[in-house]
Design a protein that fits this description.
single chain, mainly alpha, 5 strands, Serine Threonine Protein Phosphatase 5, Tetratricopeptide repeat
Length: about 900
């Protein structure tokens, strides 16, 4: 049999390679080539007319009935396509290309048994008459059939598709087949490469542009949309392109636009299954159960057991965080076809996101066993092996899974933070959680990405909430500039509350806006605030209309625009609370839970959306204008030799990092930027001493020249007029650096304390404040700043050491012991000192483990005199104690 084993495929490939290289390319008639062009341009009716005429005249090439049937399929005329293929097979009895098309046509007509028979016939023909199918078009058809029969994709790619392209570089179908195979196996980079190469040869081919769009979809919506636009320009009837565009509109929550494009698709093909599946999704999202059922029925009009329909509906619902509904649809798909792997791997992911892990992992393993090339299944199985080593800590309300070492260092702190969030937010929003929340924290970003998205290459996210399951990156995965993990967990747990309150029926912008808003309510240093970049965007007419905010998350122009989408969403929530009250915000959420559309819910509980849009724009403008109103924000005109962006603009932080947004780029160098001091405006007027940009650049220049006293003047002016600025390049950080250079320790400490109170990620400031606090014996300040540092990065030894010292000095023995123990897990630079201090505290507490730590201190430093003295004291106390025989140490 042809495609049952790898060895035969290799042998067939070698034979075909030899045969093809002998040469056999025929020259197609001009009228056939013209008909192909009609098909590619979407002129299906004209293509059908010409093909029918050629078939009546008994044209010798099977390409004519193939074009005829494909055109009928494109128009949804499935029974006629079946008749065309059946008639053609009576004449072209050995055509494997017709049989392959007949497989698709039979499925479209709901006859999978006939489809399977045709594949078996291809198998028999290919096995017995390999020499008859040595030309590139048939070679591509053999490869497609081989994949349907379960052949190894790599062998098919190399021995069939690549070989066909080598012999006939102008064969369009070979590129399409190769690109589709790459897409099916989630190798989007390879797919983009293949389609890109093909478009150099066929620049006006809508199928190829659509394939390139599909390759871009996971990583670049902007390029995807551009490719789709091009595809629909060349073929305005291209239904696959319309469906991908509709998919984008559904993701962007632009449901009206999705309906419009689906109407266009149905106008071309009234029975296109995926088009009706998308309509079922839209009906579900607007809580129209009858419309959902009718759309699904139409999607299955010709093929009642088509698993793709339920799979697509469920997949889109899961992407809307409706995992329970999505998983039900995947089960329906599998009931129709238990071997349909796309539904099985999607169900596995749905169940894992619902916390139903045993069945989820089992299904992922089943898919991996059936298809070793399924990247998602392979990634999940590999991740499962890693997660078996995780430690679970719990308090009844939360199950937190972490790397064991990280769990020992800050696991209890994470659990305590989550418990505080639950107590506060559950009461505030009136939500009773019915099941424990699962929180998984990953020390490697790739593992987080696989658990969250199924693929390892999805950087930029810090945390994601699925409802009752939260995944998060640990500080270890974020390199040298980690975000405040406590803010991340608080943000994500807020999603737990709002998603469960609304039954996962809320738009993304509102979900994210509330979480960012609640960060600020919990800690004024968390969340996001207006800053110079946001001010410029708001006043520069870059606000997104409230009704379109979810789309701003989907295809932002840049990382800055993504972060601005989070900020604007939180600003909308702030506006709604201030204008209409928090209780009305909760009523909006309750409306959403009942299936009410967001615009209708807002109008019902606040005001009409047009009024909201107008009043919010004025509110946002007011917030922007209130940012340091005493400063002049006009940007000086740059000289021709200056870069488009000044050093100051590059150094200004775009925003605080976000939990579901791409993280900002690593902090730039702290060294002073080159002086750029233009002072003339475009109007020829002199900019005064209150200009933000000039003051900042001037301070940088003075610092670069080490003119410390003079640098204080612009920096103090900036702080006076803009006291809320944060970031490593803020005026506070710069002034503290100046004061340190002048040995003005008290003033430096005061400046850094203000920065620390404003900035939740100012680890350099926290560390310096701990140093200064230790020198001043201000142990309370040391403890406070150690706690701030641990909320950003608990995996460094310094904050644990300072917290231990401060706790010891403050008489908090238990806290000191705990901190020293954590410190030992982090390879401290002076382990002997840590062991000694820990032993001393344990001895005072009557803990027998004191001796062990003391011996470890001496092992590290044999001449450690204080350790020797304590050891002698412990030994003497042991001799005097009657409990010595029982191995107990006496209390002092």
């Amino acid at each position: 049999m042809l495609f049952r084993g790898t060895s035969f495929l290799a042998r067939a490939g070698r034979f075909l390679a030899f045969s093809i290289l002998l040469g056999s390319g025929s020259v197609f008639a001009a009228d056939l080539d013209n008909c192909r062009k009609l098909f590619v341009r979407g002129k299906y009716d004209e293509c059908i007319r010409q093909c029918e005429q050629a078939v009546r005249e008994r044209a010798r090439d099977d390409e004519w009935p193939i074009l005829l049937a494909n055109s009928l399929l494109a128009l949804g005329r499935y029974p006629e396509a079946q008749e065309a293929v059946s008639n053609a097979l009576t004449r072209f009895q050995s055509s494997i290309r017709l049989r392959l098309l007949g497989h698709d046509v039979s499925n479209a007509n709901g006859n999978p048994e006939r489809a399977r028979t045709l594949l078996d016939e291809i198998n028999d023909l290919g096995g017995s008459r390999m020499g008859a199918y040595r030309d590139p078009p048939n070679l591509v058809a053999l490869g497609r059939a081989a994949l349907l029969l379960g052949a190894d994709p790599k062998i098919v790619l190399e021995k069939f598709y690549d070989l066909a392209k080598k012999v006939d570089p102008g064969l369009r179908d070979a590129y399409l087949a190769s690109g589709e195979l790459a897409l099916d196996k989630h190798d989007y980079a390879l797919a983009a490469k293949i389609f890109g190469e093909a478009l150099k040869k066929f620049p006006e081919d809508a199928d190829l542009h659509c394939g390139l769009a599909r390759a871009y979809a996971p990583s670049s919506r902007g390029r995807m949309l551009k490719s789709l636009e091009t595809a629909l320009q060349f073929n305005e009837s291209h239904v696959p392109g319309m469906l991908l565009l509709a998919d984008h509109f559904v993701d962007a929550e632009e449901y009206a636009e999705a309906e419009k494009i689906l109407a266009r698709a149905v106008a071309v093909n009234a029975w296109q299954p995926e088009a009706w599946a998308y309509r079922a999704v839209l009906a579900h999202l607007r809580d129209d159960a009858d419309g959902e059922d009718k759309s699904r029925e139409k999607a299955l009009r010709y093929w009642k057991t088509n698993p793709t329909v339920d799979h697509l509906i469920g997949k889109k619902l899961s992407q809307k965080y409706r995992f329970a509904e999505g998983s039900n649809y995947q089960r329906q798909a599998l009931a129709l076809n238990p071997r349909f792997l796309p539904a099985k791997i999607q169900l596995a992911q749905d169940l894992l996101r619902l916390g139903e892990e045993a069945e989820g992992w089992t299904l992922a393993d089943e898919v991996h066993q059936r298809d070793g090339y399924d990247a998602t299944a392979y990634n999940l199985i590999t991740l499962h092996d890693t997660m078996r080593k995780f430690q679970t800590i719990t308090n009844g309300d939360f199950l937190v899974r972490m790397d064991p070492r990280e769990a020992a260092i800050y696991g209890d702190r994470a659990l305590e933070l989550l418990q505080r969030a639950k107590a506060r937010l559950s009461e505030k929003y009136g939500v009773t959680l019915e099941r424990p929340t699962i929180v998984e924290i990953f020390p490697q970003q790739k593992d987080f990405a696989v658990r969250t998205f199924g693929m390892p290459h999805n950087p930029g996210f810090l945390g994601v909430c699925f409802g009752s399951v939260v995944t998060a990156n640990s500080p270890a995965s974020q390199g040298g500039n980690p975000s405040n993990w406590e803010a991340v967990l608080w943000h994500e747990f807020c999603h737990v509350i709002t998603l469960q309150l609304t039954k996962n029926k809320m738009p993304r912008w509102l979900s994210e806006g509330i979480s960012v808003y609640e960060e600020l309510q919990a800690n004024p240093a968390w969340g996001q605030r207006m800053n110079p970049r946001y001010r410029e965007m708001v006043l520069g007419q870059e606000l997104t209309p409230v009704g379109e905010l979810s789309a701003a998350f989907l295809s932002p122009k840049s990382d800055l625009h993504m972060q601005f989408a989070y900020y604007e969403s939180s600003l909308v929530v702030e506006f709604l609370v201030e204008r209409f009250g928090f209780d009305n915000l909760k009523l909006v959420l309750q409306e959403l839970a009942q299936g009410t559309d967001i615009n209708e819910a807002i109008q019902k509980r606040t005001a009409p959306m047009e009024k909201i849009e107008k009043e919010f724009a004025a509110f946002a403008k007011g917030v922007a204008e209130k940012l340091a109103p005493g400063l002049d924000w006009e940007k000086p005109e740059r000289r021709a030799s200056q870069p488009a962006e000044t050093a100051v603009e590059r150094l200004l932080p775009a925003a605080a990092p976000l939990t579901n947004a791409p993280s900002p780029s690593p902090s730039p160098s702290r060294s002073p930027a080159p002086p750029i001091l233009p002072v003339e405006t475009g109007k020829g007027t002199q900019i005064g001493a209150s200009n933000f940009w000039v003051l900042t650049e001037h301070a940088h220049k003075l610092m670069a020249d080490k003119r410390w006293e003079e640098a204080k003047v612009p920096l103090r002016k900036l702080i006076e007029l803009y006291p809320a600025q944060t970031g490593p390049q803020s005026a506070y950080a710069m002034l503290a650096a100046v004061q340190r250079s002048l040995n003005e320790t008290n003033q430096e400490r005061e400046t850094l304390a203000k920065l620390a109170s404003l900035d939740a990620e100012a680890t350099d400031a926290y560390l310096r404040l701990m140093e200064l606090g230790e020198a001043a014996k201000d142990w309370g300040a040391v403890a406070d700043n150690a706690g701030r540092f641990l909320a950003v990065n608990p995996l460094l030894p310094q904050p644990h050491r300072y917290l231990a010292l401060a706790s010891e000095e403050l008489g908090k023995t238990a806290e000191a012991i705990d901190s020293y123990r954590r410190l030992l897990l982090l390879d401290p630079p002076d382990p002997a000192d840590v062991h000694f201090r820990l032993a001393r505290l344990l001895y005072k507490n009557g803990d027998a483990s004191a001796r062990r730590h003391l011996l470890q201190a001496l092992e590290e430093a044999p001449r450690f005199r204080d350790a020797h003295r304590l050891l002698l004291e412990i030994a003497g106390a042991s001799r005097r104690s009657p409990e010595t025989s029982r191995g107990q140490e006496a209390k002092p």
